[in-house]
Prior knowledge:
The complex is a heterodimer of chains A (about 190) and B (about 230).
Chain A: H1 4-26, E1 58-60, E2 66-71, E3 81-85, E4 94-99, E5 121-136, E6 141-156
Chain B: H1 2-18, E1 21-27, H2 33-36, H3 49-60, E2 68-74, H4 75-85, H5 89-98, E3 102-107, H6 110-119, E4 127-134, E5 136-137, E6 141-143, E7 154-155, E8 159-161, E9 173-181, H7 190-198, E10 202-206, E11 209-210, E12 218-219, E13 225-227
Parallel strand pairs in B: 1-2, 1-4, 2-3, 4-9, 9-10
Antiparallel strand pairs in B: 5-6, 6-8, 10-13, 11-12
Amino acid sequence: xxxxxxxxxxxxxxxxxxxxxxxxxxxxxxxxxxxxxxxxxxxxxxxxxxxxxxxxxxxxxxxxxxxxxxxxxxxxxxxxxxxxxxxxxxxxxxxxxxxxxxxxxxxxxxxxxxxxxxxxxxxxxxxxxxxxxxxxxxxxxxxxxxxxxxxxxxxxxxxxxxxxxxxxxxxxxxxxxxxxxxxxxxxx
Amino acid sequence: xxxxxxxxxxxxxxxxxxxxxxxxxxxxxxxxxxxxxxxxxxxxxxxxxxxxxxxxxxxxxxxxxxxxxxxxxxxxxxxxxxxxxxxxxxxxxxxxxxxxxxxxxxxxxxxxxxxxxxxxxxxxxxxxxxxxxxxxxxxxxxxxxxxxxxxxxxxxxxxxxxxxxxxxxxxxxxxxxxxxxxxxxxxxxxxxxxxxxxxxxxxxxxxxxxxxxxxxxxxxxxxxxxxx
Lengths: 188, 228
């Protein structure tokens, strides 16, 4: 054991010196030497800026009855907005949800990065009302459901003078955006 | 004398048969990623939260001899999420059920769930001793269908609102039955209404519950607690 110890110390000291040597040489080396460019490399081109996503002017199946849809986004409603038959005016509007079938049909806002990015846009909507209702858990609200199959963009419109309901049993004169305390905690 | 003893034995056997209970575990559906991916706090990144939690709970239940455990799962949500993930989630759930002691039943709507509760067995003989729910909920309803059929919402046929609890026959429950909702906020209103309508106490959460750690959910609100 005693005979091994000096040998071990000798090896360790040699390793220490070896490890320090490159550090001594660092001062002689340039701090930032440009990397060699391989002969066959291509010049780096900046990535093209992605085109802003836009809603197509028309999309999907545009046959059958026509409804006018006015997208209305509020802070906490889950509904899509107001819809009325083309032959009527917005006084006949119904506050609705839209049923989408992933992979088949979609709301116009689905073409944007943010599906709620088309507030107060109006569309011609094609589809039908379902015989069942949807439930908005934020307001304990039952509303009609429209099954969309296609649309055509009309354009940006002024906000409607209609107030989304905040309860299924209350009166019709409701605030546009309900006070926070009226809605239900929506972290389910 | 022999006839008398036979009658006594028969009555005892009959009484034992009448004591068979059913433990009902309900799994609501998961949301679609298609609807949730744009939201600041997307729900259900993993499709199986309410399945794994229910299976974990079933493993904990110690039924009396002769009792049965029934696992009711909201099928449309898992069928739709399976299409989205290009996976057969219904088969995965069936496999999971075979690893438990529960009988698996699918339901597609609230009336089907209520039909099982009220008429899924001879309720004069088989009483419901336990009802537990895993899934989305707010303080007023259990939502089997949340953000799956409709973005951020539910089809009305996919919820069990506290206003609908009168559709449950009070006589289906055993006298010592217990109920629990493992969803969010049930303890803030739903539990009390459940007790009022069914006569059975229901434990529910004040605040939110979180399934993200796997297994049974835990209370995740700062002042959260279980209530009934």
